[in-house]
Amino acid sequence: MIELTPKNFEEEVNNAKTPVIVDFWAEWCMPCKMLAPIFEELSKFYGERLKFTKVNTEENPELSSKFGISGIPSLVVFNKGEIVDRITGFAPKEVMKQKIDAIIDNL
Predict the structure, then answer these.
(1) What is the DSSP letter of 68?
(2) How confident is the model at residue 58 (pLDDT cuts 50, 70, 90)?
(3) Cα–Cα distance between 42 and 62 in angstroms, integer?
(4) Which of 4, 61, 81, 101 has its CA 20 to 30 A from that of 50?
(5) Which domains does the chain have, with CATH numbers?
(6) What pLDDT, on a 0 to 100 scale, did the predictor assign at position 45?
(7) Would you please indicate which residues are annotated as catalytic (active-site) residues?
(8) Are residues 83 and 75 in contact, defined by beta-carbon separation less than 8 angstroms?
(9) What 8-state DSSP symbol labels residue 26?
(10) What percent of the chain lies above the pLDDT cut of 70?
(11) pLDDT score of 31
(12) DSSP letter assigned to residue 17
């Protein structure tokens, strides 16, 4: 899982060859902690089809602000550097998978 910062964001997200999903989270956020193992499992499931990354909103507030993150956890899907969709809040693994599948199918 790649931790994003303002320094590596362009390389890891904007220049990525595949779509990228970014998990905006914080250490104090309980729903974020509940989502973390699901996000990890899904990263293995999707493999090379979707790049999974994370942004700690406490350590990188400028990225949160840049992408209008007002609630966490917030998953933002990028394709070719452009935001294509968002998933806000916690959901069980199967629901997350359905939402991600729907997003990928529309790319």
Answers:
(1) T
(2) very high
(3) 27
(4) 61
(5) 2-105 (3.40.30.10)
(6) 96
(7) 29, 32
(8) no
(9) -
(10) 100
(11) 97
(12) S
